[in-house]
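Retry 2 of 3 after timeout on previous attempt. Resubmitting structure tokens to design endpoint.
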């Protein structure tokens, strides 16, 4: 049973609140990301779940069982850290076999009677029980490191080291896999490959996974659901598409993808909402009972008006002036001055098209369904 519940979790360090009433309900088999800027409490949440940190108040449940008083090694959680935390003097095989070997020795009566001497003797002889050897080699094959079993981990690349760390966590067959910024030390290309590797393994094994990251793209591309954290609190939990299309606050709108955020006053409501601000009047199909709102518009939802379009058929026509154009391959990003705002507008680009130049005056339109009000 690998579901994880965090109920009203609060953690104080010397009177300072690192976590304030955090609630999470993670389903068995789910890939769940904790996303937020540095210092928002991601690692502390993870360490409380793993048992390395005692909550100031609140309950942690793993598989419906409260684990607050259970030590880390009996919580059935596997951990992978940003720094890999491998044993440098051991080879790949030994690193992965280590915990498994200890576990088996502890549970075997005869060898445990030999105590530390028995373990040392075993290590010296380089002997591992056949079942351990089989299991370790299987998992190494799984993460494509079987060829490297006898290499020292210090002789491996960052990506390979991270796969050893992953194998070491998985070999214990944990109910829950906890990963704290596991890709942060890798270069960008490798990060992309490892994202896919981790996601494939997670889906293959159906293992409940909690993945901590400050990188929104990583969280959005990998997770089934994401909890966005800020200053020790959970701001919103949802699927990546939920968070992107219905951010609960301007902070989330900005943190999850790029957003244009405008301050507006509601001037009319009649099944839809008309909002007026500095240099714009916009119609939104969203209803609100607020007087002042944050208007959120994603860059790709602003269309540049083409001269041959029928003007009366276009909703939310606004005028602006191109400040900067940036060619990004398949899209062109424009910074456009509208009133006192500088809007970001993304347009798809196909080769041969002309790109608007600095100072050009343009008209833009936005569908009322794409004008979000918070
Ligand atoms: N052992 C500790 N002692 C004191 N303060 C801590 C300790 N661990 C974390 N903190 C504080 O708690 C807050 C959250 O930290 P952390 O969970 O590491 O954030 P994140 O992982 O999101 O970067 C930070 O303000 C940090 O300084
Ligand atoms: Mg951290």
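Retry 2 succeeded. Sequence:
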């Amino acid at each position: 049973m690998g579901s994880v519940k965090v109920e009203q979790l609060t953690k104080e360090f010397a009177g300072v609140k690192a976590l304030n009433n955090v609630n999470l309900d993670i389903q068995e088999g789910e890939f769940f990301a904790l996303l937020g800027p540095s210092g928002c409490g991601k690692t502390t949440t993870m360490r409380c779940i793993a048992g390395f940190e005692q909550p100031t108040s609140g309950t942690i449940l793993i598989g419906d069982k409260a684990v607050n008083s259970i030590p880390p090694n009996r919580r059935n959680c596997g951990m992978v850290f940003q720094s890999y935390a491998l044993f440098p003097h051991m080879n790949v095989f030994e690193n992965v076999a280590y915990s498994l070997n200890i576990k088996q020795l502890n549970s075997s009566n005869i060898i445990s009677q030999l105590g530390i001497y028995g373990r040392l003797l075993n290590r010296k002889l380089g002997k591992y029980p056949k079942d351990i050897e089989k299991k370790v080699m299987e998992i190494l094959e799984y993460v494509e490191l079987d060829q490297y079993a006898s290499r020292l981990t210090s002789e491996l690349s960052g990506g390979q080291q991270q796969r050893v760390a992953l194998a070491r966590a998985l070999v214990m067959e944990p109910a829950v896999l906890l990963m704290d910024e596991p890709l942060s030390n890798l270069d960008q290309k490798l990060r992309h490959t490892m994202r896919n590797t981790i996601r494939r393994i997670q889906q293959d094994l159906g293992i409940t996974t909690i993945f901590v990251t400050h990188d929104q793209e990583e969280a959005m591309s990998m997770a089934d659901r994401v909890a966005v954290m800020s200053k020790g609190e959970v701001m919103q939990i949802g699927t990546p598409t939920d968070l992107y299309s219905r951010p609960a606050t301007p902070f989330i709108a900005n943190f999850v993808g790029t957003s244009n955020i405008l301050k507006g006053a509601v001037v009319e409501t009649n099944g839809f909402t008309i909002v007026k601000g500095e240099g714009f009047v916009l119609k939104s199909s969203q209803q609100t009972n607020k007087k002042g709102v944050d208007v959120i518009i994603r860059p790709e939802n602003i269309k540049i008006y083409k001269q041959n379009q029928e003007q009366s058929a276009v909703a939310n026509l606004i005028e602006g002036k191109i400040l900067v154009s940036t060619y990004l391959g398949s899209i062109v990003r424009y910074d456009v001055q509208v009133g006192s705002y500088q809007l970001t507008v993304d347009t798809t680009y196909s080769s041969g098209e002309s790109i608007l130049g600095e100072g050009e005056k343009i008209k833009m339109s936005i569908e009322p369904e794409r004008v979000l009000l918070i």
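Attempt log closed. The pocket of adenosine-5'-diphosphate (ligand 1) is lined by residues 13, 18, 36, 38-44 (CB under 6 Å).
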